[in-house]
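Batch 3, record 17
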Amino acid sequence: MEDAGTTVMMNQLPFIIFSFIAILMALGTITARNPVYSVLCLILTFFALSGHYVLLNAQFIAVVNLIVYAGAIMVLFLFVLMLLNLNKETEPVKSYLWQISGAIAAGLVLVTLAGALKGASAYMVKGGPEAEGIGLVKNLGKILFSDFVLPFEISSILFLAAMVGAVFIGKREKQEGGANS
Amino acid sequence: MKALILIFSGAIVLLFAGLGKNERKLLPLVWLTLFLALAMNGLEYFGWELPWEQQWSSMLQFNKFSLAFNFLLILLALLGSMLFVPRLEDKGADVFALMLFSLCGGMLMTSFTSFFMLFLGLEIMSIPLYVLAGSRKEDLRSNEAALKYYLMGSFATGILLFGVAMVYGTTGSFDIYEIGLRYTGATMLTGMSPMAKIGILMVMFGLLFKIAAAPFHFWAPDVYTGSPGRVTAFMATVVKTAGVVAMFRLFAISFGIADNFWGPTLAILAALTMFVGNLSALRQDSFKRMLAYSSVAHAGYLLLAILVHNQNSGKALLLYMTGYGLAALSAFALIHKVSREQGREDVSAFDGWAKRYPVESFALLISLLSMTGIPGTAGFAGKYFLFSSAFEGYTWLIIFALVLSAVSVAYYFRVIIAMYFRDSGNDASSVEGSAMSVRLALIICTALNIAAGIAPWFILERI
Amino acid sequence: MDSALLIEKIVLVLVILGITLLIATYSTYAERKIAAFLQDRQGPNRAGIFGILQPIADAGKMFFKEDLIPAASEKWLFIMGPGIAMFTACMTGAAIPWGTELHVFGYTLHMQIADIDIGILYIIGFVSMGVYGIMIGGWASNNKYSLYGAIRASSQMISYELAMGLSIIAVVMMTGTLSLKEIAAQQHGINWNIWYQPLGFIIFFTCALAECNRAPFDLPECDSELIGGYHTEYSSMKLGFYLFAEYINMFISSAVIATLYFGGYNFPGMDFIESSTLLGWLQFATLFAKIFFFIFVFMWIRWTLPRFRYDQLMHLGWKSLIPLAIVNMLITAAVVLLKSNSF
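Prediction for the assembled complex:
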């Protein structure tokens, strides 16, 4: 009995470690006073999540998560934060009443979630020989271009819209009157 | 699907057309795109289907229900694009293209059969809007609106996704029919698992954010007031319709079996939304802000359809959204006109309007009557069918809704009184005629509104 | 895991790490000698014969210098910066196939630390992580020149990563795999990818220069404007780490370029060699010869070309390299499609 318990523990050990890091760093993200530290904590959270993806046999997602989120998006975040030069002093101070009510509300949500998920059992996705390498690039690519090709193509609308939007925001306003130009 | 592709292609063509110098041709291009899409949607409605479209039924399903709503969405977008003559700084292909993209998202949300498409549709609809809300870049209130909408919207999407993850965790599927089947089975055997319940609630909250129902409506007044007029009108009509329809689809098909669980919650939220919306609207001086709150109140009425989630309430939803959409479009357009002329948006800006602008005033009169629910307008018909479909199960809520509708007369009629019974003091020389397209669209809106009020079954039978 | 395999891997890790550090050390020497050659002067020639002990003397100096941490800096991050730079630089070597097999004392060594299915993505991932060392160090120094360096580094890295990724996609489409081992194996003999992807190679090489912060893209440490850029405030071995990381990055980039485009360990006429022991060593040597060549090219460019201005750098990245890379990708895709349909 004890033996079985230890093997289960051993198998779950990476999961527990990654989860621990993820939760700790997520907490760090929201509690850190300095926004740069927040971003760094968030990056470590992404690393821990990538670890989870690897445990789920989804290497591709794991690496892409690192490249895209940790490697590109967070760099831009850091870039902006460094330029903004936010300090502890400039952070708006909320009154105690707000803090307490916020803490109570969030605590209630936590209790509800914990209570609801305590005895919950997830629907087991059937494992099988085909489920073994499900996260590998080859299978992912095949499935992406067969079953999920419609969402895949439609997400191009999303990206195009986001790009057009970004360009629109970044575009310099036209000089009206044109005194200087 | 073909209408969707048409709109998307139209948006891309528009972006390329924007490279040219001739900015006058952009708006007609938008109209053409939307008009063709409307025609295409009509053809699809009457059964023109290409063989490859069936293949994606596990992702998107274009049946009578979704096509009827898509028709409404495209119509609202078309009328919306006609009603707002672009200001100097709003010219540019990207604004129109973003609106078309957003419309694509809305059309996905009416026809999804998988959570993937729901999420994609929601994002495609929202992301252009975050930008559009801030499209008047030098205006601080517009910037505030964009930031608020973006932060709240992404937060809501996060909650929605959390919910979707839990629903997936309990069913192992993203397909809404499959989820419905699994939940039916599970409910019969063991009762709903707590995880599923939390998931349903989170999905519900995420979507309620989008349609600005209380207590998730706090962003709405500021965003509606701060955004440029055309964007506000788009948000109040197209986005709201798409959000409610997506919620209706999801809660009717997937979560319908569990309605004794989420029903009471939603009923209370609906009551709260009506209450907050109507009472806050009473206190507003700015007409635009008043309409923003009234839009919150209407979201409350619309939730009734989701509570009942049967065939009849779906029909009533279509009718109601037609009435509300047409009315809100012309109302927002006329606020736009007033604020351009007088630089203010409060009710007193409409003093003596009827003398100066008889056509516009009549259009506004009809839309306000329709929003109030006066017989003869589509708003009344919509309310009638919506309330009667829910009367059996939720009598207390309907009575409450009726009382609040009566309250709403107070603030809608303030504007009518200002228009028809007050004197502006200004002489008639300041009259500035509306553009041809605006006048045409106003007439179409008004005519459709009255027509739908007189012959509601024509719309009801579309589903 | 099999304990023999474990030991083999550990040995390999240590050997590769040792070689990496050694090459990085002597790259400094090579750099100075090549600079001297190109500028028609002697270069280091005091420590040992031809100055061969110069890097060791430099390292000794680095170690014993006073280690200053600015009072107004973020201490933790200030210390972490060089560490991250060094760590990410060293991690990338794990996915590169240094050869096929090597027979040493009767053992067969597989010359790749980890045959990751998605090796190329792994490398891009760690390269993109490398910028954090520079950013964190630059920001934590609390010096405006350092901050400028950090900001330049981050925007430069992100801009050039895109073109780099796009040029790699062309290679991936052509070879049909993301595994570096497979990519290397497919370029048997002289069937190198460079013959099919010349444009891709030029783009990749340019981006590699930018990713390593090498001249003409060395704006993050541009000394005429920014004193020392992100490492202005650093001294002693922390500075040493930054400099070292740069050389390691250069080494790894050369290895990746060699593997992706120049056949990796393959060399013409490799089929005629009977002895597998000899073949193993020759392959190993071939790869390193290629790597040394590219390191030489890196240095050659550094001492020949002037530095870009910042707007020119952005212009090149976004308006030339990325469109070119996309065109390259489209052409490759079209050819791959045609080939799979009609041949």
